[in-house]
Amino acid sequence: MKTIRIIRVLNIVLSLFLGGMLLQGGLKKFSGPMPTPTTQLEAIKKGEFDQIDPATLKIKNYIFGMKQTGYFWQFLGISEVLVALLILSQVFRFAGAVMAVPVTIQIFLFHLYLEPHETGELLETGGLLAANVWLIGFEYPRWKHLIFTTSIV
User: Fold this and answer.
1) How many structural domains does the chain have?
2) Res 133: pLDDT
């Protein structure tokens, strides 16, 4: 009985952690102005990227590319806010956790491949992914019938 209570509290804490981080990250995507298509070229001409190491330049180019599509950066922000609100609601936590899987995987892989030297950020994003997997795994009895069926027809 006490173990069940601890697991429920753990689920609430993980939901608040995952939902809070996704909400903060999603809202931050709308905080600054969108760069113009020539912003990167102007910065290169001014020599602003001459002193930047290649790893940082890869990160800047990746994010700049997402912003330059005109829609993807905002779409990612809206997606993060939507799944965060679903997870924080506790009622739709499972639906939000399932929808958050591609987002948390992308965040983790971004940091794994573009910032492997940032151990703290790797642990933080790995924690996000682990919390997401835990919340989905906890609901296994609710979704296992979707994968394992007993009849052929």
Assistant:
1) 1
2) 96
